[in-house]
Design goal:
- This protein has nine helices and eleven strands.
- With 349 residues, the chain is an alpha/beta fold.
- The protein has a six-stranded mixed sheet. A three-stranded antiparallel sheet has the order 4-3-5.
- Helix 5 packs antiparallel against helix 6.
- A hairpin with a 5-residue loop joins strand 3 and strand 4.
- The protein has three domains: 46 residues, no CATH class; 77 residues; 184 residues, Rossmann fold.
- 27% of the residues lie in helices and 20% in strands.
Length: 349
């Protein structure tokens, strides 16, 4: 039976503005559906609390203004219009075997064979190309599948290989006073991991008032290039309150997406390093936590210095997967087991 607290959660957050079409908490929507099979038929409840779960939101698709040879170059998205879905067109040349891609929104009737379904690529004769068109109705689903060269091996002796993103709060005191220790900690973690297109990949981001990419997952696919890139990184110290909402939105919509090298058949892990309390409203925290947990079931929080101070009953530690994924150290310089603790969590399957 759905608890009163869950019903209270929905009642309290339905007053939130709907500038962004997102569920308040997708997990709670699933629980509510058990008790209310007509959830998505209720025009008020579905729209105010579970619009994305009930597929009332515009679908978000990868979108390129032109065809591309390298699909990684198509890293922009758009919200489709009503009655549109995501579409991917892929050309394979009969002449030299190369591929070309087009990704965008398309009307449902076009996907069903009506209208101008096939738009020619280039100026080659029709006999020299093979064009496939795929449509789908889930967010960001119109992306080419990972090729066999990046498929996950059947087993590994070092634990589960992952797509790992380090996220560092650039407004925190630990960045302004212990920046080299932060970078060295990440370097030491990388040294203990297998790095490669069939192993772990690592991305690095800072955040203040928005996400600050240092490098994406796909940019350093061997250990030497990754360690070299880390040695030359520098975080930009910012004297302002960090905005975790914009950071998580950028993380889930950019860093952990195929356009940035995220592999669909590898689990994602996020390591967040900060000493700052979180600002914002409770409903914003719930939405951000839900979005992050949908993107990654492996969120590690490294709390440096004084324990996070709770604000409105919430703090950054609430983003952790569980209490075992919270690592507290007094500082980055004197911690003796921080690296081993992070590595051990990253290797959990």
């Amino acid at each position: 039976m759905l608890t009163r607290s869950l019903l209270f959660l929905f009642a309290s957050v339905t007053l939130v503005t709907s500038q962004q079409c997102n569920d308040i908490d997708t997990g709670a929507c699933k629980l509510l559906l058990v008790q209310r099979p007509d959830l998505c038929s209720d025009p008020v409840l579905a729209k105010s609390t579970c619009p994305r779960f009930c597929k009332l939101c515009p679908v978000e698709c990868y979108h390129c203004n032109a065809t591309v040879l390298d699909y990684h170059l198509c890293n922009t998205t758009k919200l489709c219009a009503e009655n549109e879905v995501c579409m991917k067109k892929e050309l394979k040349s009969f002449v030299d075997g190369h591929h070309e891609y087009e990704m965008t929104c398309a009307a449902k009737q076009i996907c069903d064979g009506g209208g101008d379904l096939v738009i020619p690529f280039g100026k080659r004769d029709i006999e020299s190309r093979d064009i496939s068109v795929t449509c789908c109705a889930d967010d960001l689903c119109n992306y080419p599948k990972i090729t066999a060269t990046t498929s996950k091996p059947s087993s590994t002796s070092t634990g589960c290989d992952k797509d790992i993103v380090f996220l560092v709060d650039e407004t925190s005191a630990v960045v302004s006073t212990q920046q080299q220790a932060v970078i060295q900690t990440i370097i030491d973690v990388v040294k203990k991991l297998d790095i490669g297109v069939q192993n772990n990949l690592v991305g690095l981001y800072g955040y203040g008032d928005n996400l600050d990419p240092k490098f994406d997952l796909q940019q350093n696919t061997d250990k030497l290039s990754l360690l070299t890139a880390l040695q030359f990184q520098q975080f930009r110290t910012k004297d302002r309150t960090s905005d975790i909402h914009d950071a998580i939105h950028g993380l889930t919509h950019h860093a952990l997406q195929p356009g940035s090298g995220d592999r669909s058949n590898y689990p994602d892990a996020v390591v967040l390093i900060s000493d700052s309390a979180i600002s914002g409203h409770v409903h914003g925290m719930l939405r951000d936590r839900s979005d992050l947990q949908k993107a990654s079931h492996d969120v590690i929080i490294v709390s440096v210095g004084t324990r996070f101070q709770s604000l409105n009953g919430h703090n950054l530690e609430t983003f952790a997967t569980d209490q075992n994924h919270i690592i507290h150290v007094n500082d980055m310089y004197t911690s003796t087991n921080l690296v081993d603790s992070i590595v051990a969590l990253l290797k959990i399957c």
